[in-house]
Amino acid sequence: xxxxxxxxxxxxxxxxxxxxxxxxxxGGEHLAAGGDMSLSFRExxxxxxxxxxxxxHQSMPEISAFAHSAHGRGNLSCVSCHQVHPQETNFGxxxxxxxxxxxxxxxxxxxxxxxxxxxxxLEGAMDCVDCHSPHLExxxxxxxxxxxxxxxxxxxxxDKKGPFAFEHLPLKVNGCQSxxxxxxxxxxxxxxxxQVAQLCLECHTMTPGVAGSQPPAFHxxxxxxxxxxxxxxxxxxxxxxxxxFMR
Length: 247
Prior knowledge:
The chain is 24% helix and 3% strand. It is mainly α and 247 residues long. The relative contact order is 0.08.
């Protein structure tokens, strides 16, 4: 520290309890070379700094698998999002607010959060990490794993979790994204289609190989009455009383 003056916020982090050489290696040659031999990670490959971080953090199951996640395979390193020597403590060891870090790269997702119907992430009511794990990829794309459906969704929408006596097949096979856009949509309830009937008929047709029965003949789709499927089939996420998900 005689040559490298660290900012005061660094001493408020857990890293302050470590010696510089714990991360940067022995400084003898660096000192002998008059400082010309750099021990910084800035010019090194991402996997080098990641390996150094994991030397301490490998005991944390979620973080230890970072190299195999989409972020790790994409040549990102820990210091892409984290600051080891922070100059201020507003964000802890992050370089910015968590949401700002995510949408800074994922611009298309930022645009989805600005659609008329969206999860309130940009408003600060939710974080990307409520549904995604930035370090661990149990289920692509970086989604937190749950058996049968999306854990991130069901953590909030617990009434849809079940188990139900009568399950709706799309939820068991493809999860919530069978019908909903997870980030934002121009349709109410984040649905894929503007009309509920359009969404239901993607499965409930005469098309061979589609796992959905055709609606009975009295469902005259020319009538608005029969284009609002969930008016009658209200328990569409699953039911304990009706195999047709009737109320």
